[in-house]
UniProtKB/TrEMBL annotation:
It holds the Pfam family RVT_1. It comes from Merluccius polli. Residues 299-430 form the Reverse transcriptase domain. This is RNA-directed DNA polymerase from mobile element jockey. SUPFAM superfamilies: DNA/RNA polymerases. The keyword Transferase applies. Keywords: Nucleotidyltransferase, RNA-directed DNA polymerase, Transferase. It comes from the Eukaryota. GO terms for molecular function: RNA-directed DNA polymerase activity. The keyword Secreted does not apply.
């Protein structure tokens, strides 16, 4: 006779054998372990260890005090030789000092996470749990009190977790928090797509693939000769402060490791030194290498990528450089003629794709209201249009539109001699220097914002894509 089942809730399948004619000792039930019928989730999914940077409560005030007391002129004097200022040395010294200060006030901790960890389990509850376990092992008389404190702590943690969850639905204008609340309530967990680096040569192959447009650029860039009386663009410290204060602190930093959180919180303390760096860059019409470097993280377009084109490039660039680009962009767009085509919707204030679709439908349906009429619509998509821009031709068109020669040379330097590397998990490719800014997709642009260059696209769209 064979009896199998989950006895006493142990999750063990047991086989019992009984047979007549067996000896007395063999007639006893013989239990044979076949296999476990159930394995707990905590056993199926081992704990994961993650390294995270912890910001203490006094970290940002300490940074503000540190930057406020810093004599930034020392870095400028160290990079000055006669009347010439080495912008590369000046910028690297400032950026390195900021990164060192951030490392001094932050802590790197290794956190162990388990699949069965409850969302309301806080550090205070974990402390009470350890106190309860210690009192139980020691046989202390305070065990009952520790157990009661643990129960009270769990109840309070659950109430606080519920209150925090309800706060996600208080402000209907905050779409991010609304979706976070919905995902938490429904138990939805987004699985981020990451590239699998089974092939050691994949990062280098992707880096060469992303820079393939260099082969079609046979015209090398040459700087324009500015007039001696031409006025150079200068930025004010207040403009830099306002741009820093609008930084999204959630965005990732670039190769320079200067966090947007630091620039936003310490905008008042860092505005003067970065204004000086930006103005020197504009006067010399050059950019430091750390502002033109990019780390590219490929994101698979589908679950099973088969070729290099199935990886979407996401470039991590300097946050400070993005702010610099926006300031220059505002200056360039202010010089554009007022005769811009009213049917151009890209890269214009208060214009979007929805406006273009609505205008197209309105014009088409208005035309079709007449009898015996029809409409033909031609949709054109340029393959890698922005990647194949010739920098020399671009700055020449900018010059015709009235943009200063020094600003044109700055844009030319911005688009050329850019260093890029591709990082797939822990593997990093060799550095490639390109003469065209071939990677357009930054992290901010990847998450549902317009793709393209912040600085030069309005000019290029105005001169090459006027469609009536």
């Amino acid at each position: 006779m064979l009896v199998m089942g989950d006895f006493f809730g142990t999750g063990i399948i047991v086989a019992d054998f009984k047979q007549d004619g067996m000896t007395a000792w063999a007639k006893e039930r013989l239990k044979i372990l076949v296999k476990p019928a159930y394995r707990a989730k905590v056993q199926r999914e081992p704990a994961e260890k993650k390294s995270t940077t912890v910001w203490p409560q006094d970290a940002l005030p300490a940074l503000q005090d540190c930057f406020d007391c810093t004599q930034w002129s020392i870095f400028r004097e160290a990079a000055t030789s006669g009347d010439f200022i080495d912008l590369q040395e000046y910028t690297e010294a400032v950026v390195g000092f900021i990164s060192k200060c951030v490392d001094d006030v932050t802590e790197v901790k290794t956190v162990k996470t388990r699949a069965t960890r409850k969302p309301w389990l806080t550090g205070e509850v974990c402390s009470l749990l350890k106190t309860r376990d210690f009192a139980f092992k020691a046989g202390d008389a305070a065990y009952r009190e520790a157990r009661n404190n643990l129960k009270k702590g769990i109840r309070e943690a659950k109430r606080q977790y519920g209150r925090n969850l309800e706060k996600n639905f208080e402000d209907t204008r905050d779409i991010r928090r609304l979706w976070q609340g919905f995902q938490t309530v429904t138990g939805y967990k987004h699985t981020a797509k990451t590239a699998q680096c089974n092939n050691p040569s994949l990062p280098d192959d992707l880096n060469r693939f992303y820079s393939r447009f260099e082969d079609t650029n046979i015209r090398r860039a040459q700087r324009l000769t500015p007039a001696s009386t031409e006025q150079v663009l200068q930025l004010s410290a207040e403009c830099v402060r306002r741009t820093f204060s609008r930084i999204n602190p959630r965005k990732a930093s670039g190769p320079d490791n200067v966090l947007g959180r630091v620039l936003k919180s310490c905008a008042d303390e860092l505005k003067d030194v970065f204004t000086d760096i930006f103005n020197i860059s504009l006067s010399q019409a050059v950019l430091p290498t750390c502002f033109k470097s990019a780390t590219i993280v490929p994101v698979p377009k589908n679950s099973t990528p088969h070729c290099l084109n199935d990886y979407r490039p996401v470039a991590l660039t300097s946050v400070a450089m993005k702010c610099f680009e926006r300031l220059v962009k505002d200056h360039i767009t202010s010089l554009l003629p007022a005769s811009m085509d009213h049917l151009q919707f890209a890269y214009r204030t208060n214009r979007s794709t929805e406006d273009a679709i609505s205008t197209l439908l309105h014009l088409t349906l208005t035309h079709l209201e007449d009898k015996n009429t029809y409409a033909r619509i031609l949709l054109v998509d340029f393959s890698s249009a922005f990647n194949t821009i010739l920098p020399q031709q671009l700055v020449e068109k900018m010059k015709l539109l009235g943009v200063g020669t020094n600003t044109c040379n700055w844009v030319l330097d911005f688009l050329t001699e850019r260093k890029q590397t591709v990082k797939v998990n822990s593997r990093t490719s060799n550095t490639i220097t390109t003469w065209i800014k071939v990677i357009l997709l930054t992290l901010s642009e990847y998450f549902k914002t317009p793709a393209g260059w912040i600085t030069v696209i309005p000019i290029w769209a105005e001169t090459d894509f006027q469609i009536s």
